[in-house]
Specification:
This protein is an alpha+beta fold and about 325 residues long. Helices cover about 25% and strands about 30% of the residues. It has six helices and 21 strands. The chain has helices at about 1-15, 45-60, 90-95, 120-130, 160-175, 305-310; strands at about 35, 40, 65-70, 75, 85, 110, 115, 140-145, 150, 155-160, 180, 185-190, 200, 205-210, 215-225, 235-240, 270-275, 280-285, 295, 300, 320. The protein has an eight-stranded mixed beta barrel. A hairpin with a 2-residue loop joins strand 14 (about 205-210) and strand 15 (about 215-225). The longest helix is centred in the first third of the chain and has 16 residues, at about 45-60.
Length: about 325
Amino acid sequence: VVAVACALGAGAAHAQQTPPVAPAPLPPGVVAPGVRIAGVDVGGLARADARAAVLGQVVAPRRRPLVVTFRGRRIAIHPVAVGYRADVDYAVRAALLFGRTRPVPAEGVDVPLRQTVNAKRLRAVLVARTSRHELPARDARLVFRGINPVVVRPRVGVAVDVPRSMAIVRRALVERARPAYALAGRRVRPAVTSVGPAIIIERDRFRLTLWRAGRRQTFPIAVGQPAYPTPAGNFRIVSKQRNPTWFPPSSPWARGLGPVPPGVNNPLGTRWMGTSAPAIGIHGTPVPGSIGTRASHGCIRMYIRDAEYLFDRIEIGTPVIIR
């Protein structure tokens, strides 16, 4: 019995020393079992079949339009238009290495699929498709209804944040985990957030109104003679000068009258505020008796003290509305 047992033990030992049988070599162009590409099982498939499986299950769904949203609008991004491509051939070549030059792990292996987007084309598409849905910033400004100034309040705008949105679209094109992806926005601040003063001139009433921060101050004025009327329209202050020298205009009525240096006899008084109407300005006058009449050659005359007061409270660019 002992001899038989020893013989059996010797036979078992001999069996354990027998080398394992090597697996049969893979047929040419066939992917080893246990290999996946981007989650698609391609083990046992020929090269062309593995390629077709990845194209059908991974790439084709990602070539469908991607829906993104911006400010409540739905926008379709077409992957081909932004240069989406997937290098399926490269992934298949990498898959064929397993079971040949590389071992297949016991748990299998998933070969990544390289998917890219053309950044330049993606940026151009995002800008083109979202620009119509942006909310532009609005500067504060004055508009006039007749002679009444109305303040248009500033508004913060919303624009697409292109770099962040590009990253979102790149990820979404590959991920496709949601029916729609929200693009990133950014706030656009208005350049002008407050309005300055405005001047309203009513020729028939010989009155100048200074409008500041919703408050009005009125001053008596003189305007142009019937032969030299003060022009009506929307103008602005383009120049300011203290103690100006008067240079006569190129007009027959002013021939030989100047120039007149600063002083009590200067026809411009002590302050000059030129408007965008050619040769027309607001200024003081050494002839206070002309206020309330049509006495000038087109300019707006004020009492000297009123012109000095106005001068200090307006700026270049102040609107001048003449009615």
